[in-house]
Give the backbone structure.
Amino acid sequence: MSRNNQGTEKRESSIEIASRPQFSAADVRSVLQEQYDLDGELRALVSERDQNFRVKNNDGRCYVFKIANAAEPEDVTDFQIQTLLHIENAGCPVATPRIIRTVAGAVATKIGDGSGECVCRIVSYVPGIPFSTVEPNARLAADLGASAAALDNSLLGFEHDADQHLLLWHMQRATELRDLLANIANIDLRNMVGTCLDDFERNVLPMHSSLRSQVIHGDLNPDNVLVAQTCPDSIAGVIDFGDIVHGPMIFEVAIAASYLRVKEDPPALIAPFVAGFDKVTTLEAVELELLFDLVRTRLAASITIEHWRRAIRGENDPYVQAYLQSERSVEHFLACLDSMTRRPFTDSILQACRR
């Protein structure tokens, strides 16, 4: 980690552990009834930093009740809310959660248990099949690209006072991950991740200020993307706007691409995905040239943060358990990209985009 970014582990750990909401179902029901006039079946959802419940109201309609981490500044929570309101007003063709107002018309409220209060809100439940549960093909990857571009287009021009808030997952903070590398016990893996961070610092950071930037979703992973039930080659919607940030648009592309993992042929799904994005929003040559380093950087972040999180939360944490299964695929895919090298990977992307 650079000398200018000390204290990352301490700062992020406070959000990881001390402030994770743990409200009871009874607490949630009370807020639902009093603030939203809702009542029904609750099901806890696994969450990285917050506490979420799926709510099936007595009338059959479904919602997601979201309780923000107590350490999250309220302006960051408002940023997430205002983003969804902006997308809705922009007429985005990609389905996203809608903010459900309280009976008094507020976009959020608070929940307390005697020891403190957290901001909470309700969003609509977006139907669809999680991308993580399907076997993607080139057509679905291309539609994901087009959907990602359409979503980002709906966010053009949107600004918020908290749109550059700090979050370890944000790629512009990648060099800070060096502070956490000691949590990776395997020396070879640690060195591979360190090389990715070095390449990011050498190749991407000097270009950062010149890249097109806007508010982006920032986490188009397979659990946040939904596939249409009646059309398995089409994207049904995008959920979970907890990692939104103002940053280079190409970061959005790289983050999503990092989850399209075909070990035998890394560009197999990434190339049609990028081409799908490019058909909606033309990507610049410099952006395409940076993709190799950016995809590897996201993979390096995934490895580093999951090893660190396991160290502070323990093996039995529900979120850690949920992601242990995918960890090995991340490592293998990163190794495969490194073996392929930058030029062949980039040429395959350029060819898919007909450049």
Notes: DSSP finds ten helices and eleven strands in the chain. Confidence is low (pLDDT under 50) at residues 1-8.
